[in-house]
Amino acid sequence: MRSYLLSRLWQSAVTLVLATIVVFLGVRALPGDPALAFAGEERDPASLAAIRAKYGFDDSLLLQYWRFVSKSLTGDLGRSTRTNIPVTDMLASALPVTIELSALALGVAIVIGVGAGVVAAVRRGRPAEWAANALALLGLSIPNFWLGLMAILYLSVATGLFPASGFVSFFEDPISNLHHLVLPAVVLGTGLAAVVMRQTRSSMLEALGADYIRTARAKGLGPQTVIGVHALRNSLVVVVTILGLQLGGLISGAVVTERIFGLPGFGKMTLDAVFQRDYPVIQGVVLVTATAYIVINFLVDLTYSLIDPRIRLAGVPS
Amino acid sequence: MLGSQPQTGGGKNAAAASTGRPVLSVRDLSVTFRTEEGSVSAVDSVSFDVEAGEVLAVVGESGCGKSVTAMSLGGLLPRSATVTGSVLLEGTELVGASDRQLRGIRGDDLAYIFQEPMTSLNPVFTVGRQIVEVLRLHQGVSARAAKSRAVELLTLVGIPSPARRVDEYPHQLSGGMRQRVMIAMALACGPKVLIADEPTTALDVTVQAAILDLLRDLGKRLGTAIVLITHDLGVVADIADRVVVMYAGRIVETAPTQELFDAPQHHYTTGLLGAVPTAGRRASDGRLQEIPGLVPVLTVQPDACTFAERCPAASDRCRTSRPPLAPEENPGRTVHRFACWHPAGSEEDR
Amino acid sequence: MTQTSGTTPPETPTVEPSVAGLATMGTPPGGETAPRRGRVWRRLRRNPLGVVGALILAISIATALLAPLLAPYSPAAVHFDAPFQPPGTVGFGLGTDDLGRDLLSRILFGLRASLEVGVLAVVVALAVGVPLGLAAGYFRALDAVISRFTDLMLAFPFLILAVGLAAIRGASLGNAALAIGISQIPGMIRVVRSETLRLKELDFVAASVVDGAGDLSVLARHILPNALSAVIVQATVAIPVAILGEAVLSFLGLGIQPPDPSLGTMLAEAQQYAARAPWTAIVPGLAIVVVTLGFNLFGDALRDALDPRGSRR
Q1: Using CB atoms, which residue from B33, B76, B103 is nearest to C20?
Q2: What CATH number is associated with residue A166?
Q3: Taking the complete model, does pTM exceed 0.95, yes or no?
Q4: Would the CB atoms of B33 and C21 count as touching at under 8 Å?
Q5: Under CATH, which number does the domain C46-75+88-306 receive?
Q6: Is the distance from CB of C98 to CB of C269 less than 8 angstroms?
Q7: Residues in chain C with pLDDT < 70?
């Protein structure tokens, strides 16, 4: 277990360092003078020089990189060239919205995906499997932003059941908060649910055909225990891995979903920054995303090894 | 034909008339699978008895229906299988029993051991938990009592430092140890019948012998009847009291072990034993070649001896008329019976 | 449990026991031979969903290629006298948008753009992913390096990548395809790597190594051809993902720029007046659903045909 975790930790660290280099070089790859990009509206030579001095664009790349990393580590990601608000502060207000949305969507995806996947595997060759497969196929084929548009059109605008846009903080009004997030979470979770369902189904089928399932049945265990304990526990190992790999899709989906439902989260911040060419913000957003991805996937591996004793004890990924 | 024999009651009475009462009595057991290509018969009118403490070996090549027979006894076959006939476990009919009833019997009175100890235990649970599970299910004991019983069982099957092993996962044990765990799990509730499906095939030769010793020893000590499914006649010679030889879903010969080895009658048995040279029809390792895939005769039910195509002594009669398992009286008892028109030992015995 | 009639075994279905071996007969492990190809084709044709998928694909590809011939109008042609015509209007089969542009024409050209991005993205993924996957699977020394590279790419979700590319190089069809393609490289590497690892162990590959065949020749002659079916399946499932990606990026303004027709930009424009003219949002969306569904159906059938037990991951 320790050697496995150490090697995963080391790999994650290497990836993280590489990611910071990519982000750093990405900003330097901007066409033209980076100072110009960071200057925003003020373009007189004096302020350009000031920016150049402030960001140290005239220093060696190595020194600049070092400064970038050490500043990032202390939470200093620069300031928006539009509003002059520190990027860290912007993230602090935007991220909670996105994290809540993503967590709810993940919940939707797991409940629907694992549930439907188990049903499809257990009811193999029957209408229930057919229906689950068809839903998964639709879930994979329907763009979530279109689903969002349709949901707004038919569930918000037409019936007024749900608010079409806007956000209320959970701490101000939990009910209203959830009311605003139900549709976005379902829309964001649908595609992921389809992926989870397919993975659950195939790993459940594999588990159900395994010798240890025959043993469990030979012991006289009922179907609930055989499926819900013996087969599912083994299938979850694979499903958890898939969730880690789908994180990128979840982040991308969150950006789009926030845009459609007008949620003031990370996605809105990102898109605004791109259209306003607010480079410090873009840099901060990309850096935070990459870091989050790497850290969360490390945590997923931790979970993975907790579920599967073969990894926990021997350190051999199966 | 075996089909004319009396069903449930008759078999039981016939059994009681002889040496002892069988704990497991199988009569006219047939299994067919529904497939895309139609109905396929895998087991055809199989009958045998097993007494307490007795070891009955069912031998044959892969595809001969021996494992399907084993699985059908406890109702473990997939939905596509149709089972007919009768399986009496201490007077309780298992064929046609409800799922709930079968679940109550499996793991309790009727236990299984399978071929692959590497994969037959669930990799994500400790061996202790897997033994405790069956104890709590059938005996309703407390978690604590079940745990200490699990340690006792591990001791019984000869696992060193059982108190420590009980908390280990299957991957931490060797193949032989895992099979011992399987045996401990199977014996946990003191079953009347233990069905061991190729229990030693996947193990090293030295480990095989130890496991067989353990099985025979425990069977005699606990009075458990053992149905041993195997393709290995060495295993049969080691442990079995009686043998049933199956070919293409049918019993072709049955006899006490010693008699079968000394005077095999069916040409399939002699082929298996390598006792009689079967000019060019044998594989170089002295065993008949494994039949690839499904034995083709299973899809149809010809009025013929199923072995005729491969038999050195086959005549026209074998191809047009099916030999009964004779003599037909006292079915399932310890007499020597075989289904052949031209038995191998006919010059001496008949 | 309910009482089941006859001798039906308990609830839990199992895979047929190996003794009965009925369902899985005659599938040699890893037998990539010529008769196999014929069998794959037969299996594919026997799968009705796969046939439907293939039909959808053929029709969408044909209409995309022939868009200039099939479209009744130029996709940019505005008809100020006929805004917001509902589907079924004479002359505008699928209706018009706020500027009176013909939705059918715009969808045909939008589909063309979608497929263009889909193909470009997959070409990027193939061009980088296949060589790296082969190298990672074949040369042990490179495996760790390439794994880090894969991890690195995964750390930048495709939308974030697209945001970065749009920031650096501007938003365009090419950059959208590049962002999507890069995001599909890790998946391609993984598939090719695992196939290479599997094939490397097979006897005929080992034999040619013993015979003194060079690494490149083994890779080109033995491993790549046999890994091809897995690559094709991966590419087939990558294209609909790319099509959805293009729609998302164009919807957000990070892909194809208006007035160029794209299903994504059509939906972005429709968002403003969808309540008044819902078909402007429904019709392009359905077009995306149908095309991606076609690819997904075909991809699934292809996967099943190549590997009926679905054990490959």
Answers
A1: B33
A2: 1.10.3720.10
A3: no
A4: no
A5: 1.10.3720.10
A6: yes
A7: 1-37, 307-313
